[in-house]
Design brief:
179 residues, alpha/beta, 2 domains, 3-stranded antiparallel beta sheet, 7 strands, elongated
């Protein structure tokens, strides 16, 4: 990330914190993906940096897990008043998968492909039960609670697209042709 930042700075400014790789005890100290997810709180190192409406993310030590978060504020809170201004909001794997599935589902419906293309979200046993219920009811997407090759076979369409995301935000995508 230290090398990538300067290369993309003009289109995507990145500010890195808690990145001391020389001292293993300080790398991701009180700011990694697990810290943010389990504590449901803003990392202390971000307290003076992150402003309402800005987005941030935390990675784990080897960067294969990510959680996104923001402080409420700006246009998205205009109807709620100022009481929620600056409140910590977490976008974990369940929420990211739900948002992505809803977006992809909308695109499929807008393209007139809803009868030909089924969208499935593959969740692990650790998935939030309310996200599973929401996906099935509000987003009208088949949801499978086990990440396995057989989970893709359950789709009865000619083409299936699956989005798999663990609660801790490990991710993979699977595309399969099912008959």
């Amino acid at each position: 990330m230290k090398l990538l930042g300067p290369m993309i700075e003009s289109s995507l400014p990145i500010r890195l914190v808690c990145t001391d790789i020389e001292d293993a005890t300080s790398l991701n100290y009180n700011c990694g993906a697990d810290y943010v997810k389990t504590g449901q709180r803003l990392p202390p190192a971000m307290a003076d940096i992150l402003k309402p409406g800005q987005r941030a993310c935390s990675l784990d030590g080897d960067a294969d897990r990510v959680v996104f978060y923001y402080l409420s504020g700006g246009a998205e809170d205009a109807t709620r008043g100022s009481k929620t201004e600056g409140k910590f909001r977490l976008l974990d794997g369940d929420k990211i998968a739900t948002l992505a599935a809803g977006f992809i589902g909308d695109l499929v419906r807008q393209a007139g492909l809803a009868e030909k293309l089924k969208i499935g979200v593959v969740q692990t046993a650790y998935a939030n039960g309310s996200s599973t219920a929401y996906l099935k009811k509000a987003v009208s997407i088949a949801s499978v609670n086990e990440l396995s090759p057989s989970s893709l076979i359950s789709f009865d369409s000619v083409q299936s697209t699956g989005l798999a995301r663990q609660m801790c935000a490990h991710r993979c995508q699977a595309f399969a042709s099912c008959r």
